[in-house]
Amino acid sequence: MRKSLNGQKPNRKREQAAWAKDDFETLYTQYADQVYRKCLSMTKDSEVAQDFTQEIFIKVFSKLDTFKQQSAPSTWLYSIAHNYCLDQIRISKRMNLQELPEGVELAEEPVVTDELQLQALERLMENLPVEEVTLLRLKYEQGLSVSQIGQQLNLNESAIKMRLKRTRDKLNRLINQRLQ
C-alpha cells in the first residue's frame, strides 16, 4: 500500500486539498520525488532530471488555476511532467543535429534502441483515449497495483483488469498495424 510523505494513506480528496495555492509546499513535498523519478527515467541524467523537476513545478504553480479536478492531482501532475520531458527531449534532439565528418557513413541497417521503441510506443499511445493511457501509465510506469489503481479511480479490481486488458489489446493491434 502506497503512503504519502506524511504517513497517511493517500486519497483523492486529500490530494486535491494539497493543490491549494496556499499549500504549494505540501504539493511539492508530496510529489517532487515522483516527478524527479519520472524525469530521470526519461532523461537518464540526474542533473537534467533535477532541472526538469524544478521547471515542471514552476509550470504547475503558474497553472494551478487550470486544474479541473476531473482526475487525481497526481495524474494531472504526472501528465504535465511526462509531456514536459518529451518536449524537452525533442527540442534537445533538434538542436544537436550535426553534419557527419567526411568519411563517416551511416550504418545500412537502422539500429533500434530501447529509447526509439519507447518513443514509437509513445506515438502510438497518442491514438488512445486519455483514460486508457492513464491506466497504462499508472500500472506500468508508476508501478501501482490493480487494487491501488481501483482505489484511485473509484473502480473495482475486475473493471481495472478488464480495462487494462482491452487497452493492451488495442495497443497491440496498433503496433501490429504499424509493422505491416
UniProtKB/TrEMBL annotation:
<dbReference type="InterPro" id="IPR013249">
    <property type="entry name" value="RNA_pol_sigma70_r4_t2"/>
</dbReference>
<dbReference type="Pfam" id="PF04542">
    <property type="entry name" value="Sigma70_r2"/>
</dbReference>
<feature type="domain" description="RNA polymerase sigma factor 70 region 4 type 2">
    <location>
        <begin position="119"/>
        <end position="171"/>
    </location>
</feature>
<protein>
    <submittedName>
        <fullName>RNA polymerase sigma factor</fullName>
    </submittedName>
</protein>
<comment type="similarity">
    <text>Belongs to the sigma-70 factor family. ECF subfamily.</text>
</comment>
<dbReference type="InterPro" id="IPR039425">
    <property type="entry name" value="RNA_pol_sigma-70-like"/>
</dbReference>
<dbReference type="GO" id="GO:0006352">
    <property type="term" value="P:DNA-templated transcription initiation"/>
</dbReference>
<dbReference type="InterPro" id="IPR036388">
    <property type="entry name" value="WH-like_DNA-bd_sf"/>
</dbReference>
<dbReference type="InterPro" id="IPR013325">
    <property type="entry name" value="RNA_pol_sigma_r2"/>
</dbReference>
<dbReference type="GO" id="GO:0016987">
    <property type="term" value="F:sigma factor activity"/>
</dbReference>
<dbReference type="InterPro" id="IPR014284">
    <property type="entry name" value="RNA_pol_sigma-70_dom"/>
</dbReference>
<keyword id="KW-0238">DNA-binding</keyword>
<dbReference type="InterPro" id="IPR007627">
    <property type="entry name" value="RNA_pol_sigma70_r2"/>
</dbReference>
<keyword id="KW-0731">Sigma factor</keyword>
<keyword id="KW-0804">Transcription</keyword>
<dbReference type="Pfam" id="PF08281">
    <property type="entry name" value="Sigma70_r4_2"/>
</dbReference>
<dbReference type="GO" id="GO:0003677">
    <property type="term" value="F:DNA binding"/>
</dbReference>
<keyword id="KW-0805">Transcription regulation</keyword>
<dbReference type="InterPro" id="IPR013324">
    <property type="entry name" value="RNA_pol_sigma_r3/r4-like"/>
</dbReference>
<feature type="domain" description="RNA polymerase sigma-70 region 2">
    <location>
        <begin position="27"/>
        <end position="93"/>
    </location>
</feature>
